[in-house]
Each structure stands twice: as C-alpha cells, then as structure tokens.
Design a protein that fits this description.
The structure is a homodimer of 191-residue chains. Chain A is mainly beta and 191 residues long. Chain A contains 2 helices and 15 strands. The first copy, chain A, is globular.
C-alpha cells in the first residue's frame, strides 16, 4: 500500500441528518425499498412467501444512502430499517451480501429493535451476533452478512463500509446461509 | 487495486456495547483520556489554559476503542465524549488530526450535545459543519479535523475510519486550524 496508493477523489466535507429512532435519512439521494416480492428464494417456506405477497406484499426493509465516490479511502454509510414480521415461522430479514472486494469489512451500529446479524464465509463458517440498541456488530472482511429482525418493532441500524467494497448479492443467493431464525410461539430458534 | 490487493487478516465477528447517550463503551480494551494539561499549544489563550490546569485540570475528552488489525479492509471505530467548557472564551475541543494515510476519510455520527467539526487541508482550505444528535459529518480523505463542543452538555459521537488510516497529530500541532470557536455571552463566534 505504501508504494502503490490508489487514487482517491478530493471532495468537500458535508453532513446529512438522520432520524435515528425512525431509521430514516432526511433528503436522501438514494433510497432502496425491498418488498416481500423481492425476496423470492430467500425464505425456507416458499408457499408462505407467496401467500404474503398475494395478501399485502409488505415492505421488508428500506436502506437510505447518500453516495460518495466508490473508491479506496472514502467511506459508504447508510441507515436501514427492517420491519418486523414472519414468512411462515421465519423472521423477516435482508437478502444479505458479500462485498465484491472480499477483504473489506462493515460496521453496524444498532439503534432500535432486536435482531441478529447472521454471518458466513464462502467455506461454510457461520456465526451470528445479537442486535440491541447501542450494540455494534463488527462484520470482518470476507464475511457475508444478513440482518434479521427477531423482535416486534422495526430494527434500525447505521452502517459504514469502505468506498471500494462493492456488493455481491449473487453468491449469497446461490449459497444461502447455513442457519435461519424462526419464531415459534415466544421462542426464537436459530437452526 | 485489482492486481495488487493488500493483505487483510481474517478474524471472527464480534460485538461491543455502547451507551450512546453517555458516550461510553462497555468493557473497552483501550480508553484515551485527555485533560486540559494535554492541550498545551492548542488554545488561543495560553494564560487561561494555565489557570484552568492549575485550578482543576479537568478532563477534556475520552475516546473508547477496541482495536482491530490496522490494515486495509478493516474498520476502526470509537465512541468519544467531549466535555463542555471554555478556555478563556474558546470552546473545549479535541487536538485534531490528519490521517497518516492521507487519502482516507472518517465518519462521525453525533449522538448527543452540540458542536462543530472543524476541518482543514494542508493547503489552507477550512470548512466546518455543525454537530447535532442524529447528524452525521463526512470528513473526506485529505481533511484534518477537530471536534469542538459549543454546547452546555457533553458532545458524544460515534466514528468509523479505515483500518490503515493511522493518526498524524504532529502536523496539526504545528499548523493549527485557521478558525476557532468562541463563546461570547450567548453568542457563538467562529473566527
């Protein structure tokens, strides 16, 4: 890194305003919304997902970003809001992703709600950490990751990752995660 | 970056717990405390600083970190708590720093209190942004930066920066910042 520094664009400082409880960004330049219908193939119970889509196709999660250059040295950030709910017995979750630049990590600071960060490596390791307000989960480089809302209210979190990380959704979609989170009555089961 | 990827150590995921209002990390591995006596040379009114040190030498700020590898792809994070107060008319502030790897940025998410992020470049540009709860300041690559508490309660913030950024305090100490923040009666003056 010392002899061959990558180019990093010079930009001026700026600020953005979040509602940390609501999990939204004010005046976002980019807002991603995923509905139940965007989640085909991700849940164990495909029939339950089909029913849910037919009934109301609810919002699963929203991600707010204001992009900066996708380059080494810059930092991407977002605030996200994952709704509570179940597909059959399985808790609402995000699609999950690896980074395109595999050796880059991500930091999630949970602000509201309850949940799990489910993480896996391409060679099959699987780990999870709980989300609770004020708890930060460190997703190290190389680990694919997905957020899961195990509670009764929205799960909101603030995240930061390197500008040159990129997203790789395809491999997770093919591989899936070794573990899923289910709510059975009042019990949370990870299996 | 594609042909010559730097080494990034594989580690397992983990989580840490913060009190986001108090601005502290539970069970930190590293805690940096700066008192008034650590701030020699940074305030305009050296005599007022001397008096303050003699009177009580109060804590200026605390920074809590749990280090990860100082490498490309990892992310450093901290929570910091900057006390309210003045040295003469000048508001309490941090020393400020550049990154040793100059083309790396930093993200600050303000959680409590009021303040300014003062930023400068080596060639003399100067910009500042206000801190307020839920407001995030983007310190782009190349910009030196210092936090200033302009309010009456602690200023707490959560920050993230690249693992290979490093700190350069020396150049800021020599150069100073072109602007300072003063409280005169009820007015905040940046000059």
């Amino acid at each position: 890194m010392n002899d061959l520094k990558p180019q990093t664009t010079f930009i001026d400082p700026f600020a953005v305003n979040f509602d940390l409880v609501e999990g939204i960004m004010h005046e976002p330049k980019s807002r991603l919304v995923r509905h139940a219908s965007d989640m085909a193939g991700h849940y164990a119970d495909a029939a339950a997902l089909k029913q849910l889509i037919a009934a109301s196709n609810p919002v699963h999660y929203e991600v707010f970003e204001t992009p900066v250059p996708h380059e080494y040295g810059h930092l991407m950030y977002c605030i996200s809001k994952l709704q509570p709910g179940q597909v059959g017995e399985e808790c609402f979750m995000t699609k999950g992703h690896y980074h395109s630049t595999v050796n880059t990590g991500e930091i999630y600071l949970a602000l509201r709600g309850e949940g799990l960060m489910m993480m896996k490596t391409p060679d099959g390791r699987c780990r999870w950490e709980t989300f609770a307000p004020g708890r930060m989960v460190y997703v190290p480089p190389y680990w694919g990751h997905r957020s899961i809302n195990t509670g009764r209210e929205p799960l909101t979190s603030f995240c930061v990752y390197p500008g040159d990380a990129g997203h790789n959704y395809g491999d997770i979609e093919k591989e899936g995660f070794p573990k899923r989170a289910f709510r059975r009555g009042d019990r949370l089961i990870v299996e």
